[in-house]
Design brief:
Layout lengths: L8 H4 L9 E6 L9 H10 L4 E5 L4 H10 L11 E5 L13 E2 L6 H14 L5 E4 L2 H8 L1 H17 L3 E7 L5 H10 L2 E9 L4 E10 L8 E7 L3 E12 L6 H8 L2 E3 L2 E2 L2 E2 L3 E6 L3 E7 L7 H8 L4 E7 L6 H13 L4 E6 L9 H8 L6 E3 L8 H15 L3
Bound molecules: guanosine-5'-triphosphate (GTP) and magnesium ion (MG).
Length: 390
């Protein structure tokens, strides 16, 4: 099994890409970050896998440059990585690479080089192509797909894995049909523009092995940093003094709050910036006089963390009302049963019973120590992805 290293994607693929299989990233032309294969490449180099990377849309030097932009070392992997240069001949430039596509307009030329490499080196390899669509334009659509079918077979014979970037220009139906059949898994990438953010979305449309198709995840590409799941607006809400500000402090990597005499009197903002996630978090004050503000903030919320004080059973009717409103507005939420470290804190089951919400995810948290806080956030992301897209 080969991991893609793209957050959550491996889970949905049932662990990753099994050996002998191929995966296509089918990328809408308007998507800005159209190289997903480079992230799979880097992830596997980091894990000591032998990788073959065929460039046809930019030079091998550009690959090294992209690595550096992401904050990744390029030279470190020179023993594991073979770059096949399918670019220099196109622009009539000399190449420093050992493996060069001499006839970029002939798919057989790509087959020969990949074959030679697969034969020469022992063990399975991760073979990726930076642009299948470019090769189709150069070599002809049908010819390329026939050639790629043979290449996939050879990679499979050697127990390797094949990964392709493909820009989904409006090709003829018959070509799209062939593509649909040719690859074991297909992940579509689309551009997404919200009112206050822009990003892109991956969507699993085909998995030829056990996995969960039809999941959609909003993500962004950061330099440095790479791919992160992006959640544009997480609300942290809950009754008065339930621990919202403490929760945000524990959850966020950056956080600002406005407190007067220990109580929050304005919207707090924080950012989660972890290797796999980036999220904007907004905390709303608990005092009842701020209710209109809460209503306003809920517009366009991706999801909410409902922080309740687990030592205060008398607050559950209020929390229940907040939960009902979130449900009405189709905003996914998770209940953080906060202050779980304090004596007399209610357990998950009791909270579900009191809130009359048997299905609601409840996570015990202790905001002052950070316990359970990130778990509650991760569960919220699951709820968001499971419902629509985040
Ligand atoms: N034992 C314990 N105390 C907590 C925990 N979280 C918060 N507190 C305490 O509860 C009190 C209120 O915490 P805040 O984080 O200010 O609560 P809040 O919900 O932001 O309050 P408002 O914004 O005024 O509604 C503080 O004294 C915190 O130290 C927790 O997990 N365990
Ligand atoms: Mg507060």
């Amino acid at each position: 099994m080969i991991k893609t290293g793209i957050p959550k994607l491996d889970d949905y693929l049932g662990g990753g890409i099994p050996e002998k299989k191929s995966l296509l990233f089918s990328i809408a032309p308007e998507v800005e970050e159209s190289n997903l294969a480079i992230h799979v490449l880097h992830h596997n180099l980091q894990r000591g896998k032998r990788c073959i990377y065929v460039v046809s849309q930019s030079s091998p030097k550009q690959l090294a440059h992209s690595f550096r932009e992401f904050g990744w070392d390029f030279e470190e992997y020179s023993d594991l990585l073979t770059v096949v240069d399918g670019y220099s001949r196109l622009i009539g430039a000399p190449s420093d690479e050992k493996f060069v596509i001499l006839e970029p307009h002939d798919i057989l030329s790509y087959e020969d080089v990949v074959d030679e490499l697969l034969e020469a080196q022992p063990g399975p390899a991760v073979v990726s192509f930076d642009s299948l669509s470019n090769i189709m334009d150069l070599c002809g659509e049908r010819e390329t797909l026939q050639g790629i079918s043979r290449i996939n077979e050879r990679i499979s014979d050697k127990n390797g894995v094949a990964v392709y970037n493909f820009t989904s220009w409006p090709y003829k139906e018959s070509i799209l049909y062939r593509i649909q059949r040719l690859f074991d898994a297909i992940v579509e990438i689309d551009a997404v523009t919200g009112e206050t953010y822009s990003g892109q979305k991956y969507h699993l449309v085909k998995i030829g092995w056990n996995g969960q198709a039809s999941k959609s995840v909003l993500f962004k590409v950061y330099r440095p940093g790479g791919i992160k799941i992006y959640v544009p607006k997480v609300m942290v809400m809950g009754p008065f003094r339930s621990g919202k500000t403490s929760f945000m402090k524990a959850l966020c990597d950056r956080h600002t709050s406005v407190d007067r005499m220990g109580s929050t009197i304005a919207v707090e903002h924080g950012t989660i910036d972890r290797p796999a996630y980036r999220a904007e978090v907004f905390g709303v004050p608990g005092q009842e006089r701020f209710l209109p503000l809460v209503q306003k903030m809920k517009g366009a919320a991706s999801g909410a963390l409902l922080v309740i004080d687990a030592t205060q059973p008398e607050q559950t009717p209020e929390a229940k009302k907040m939960a009902a409103e979130l449900s009405e507005q189709h905003i996914p939420y998770v209940v953080a049963a906060n202050k779980c470290d304090a004596p007399g804190a209610m357990g998950e089951e009791e909270i579900r019973r009191r809130m009359d919400a048997p299905e609601t995810p409840v996570v015990p948290t202790a905001a002052t120590t950070g316990e359970g806080v990130f778990k509650a956030f991760e569960m919220l992301v699951e709820e968001i992805i499971g419902g629509k897209s985040c």
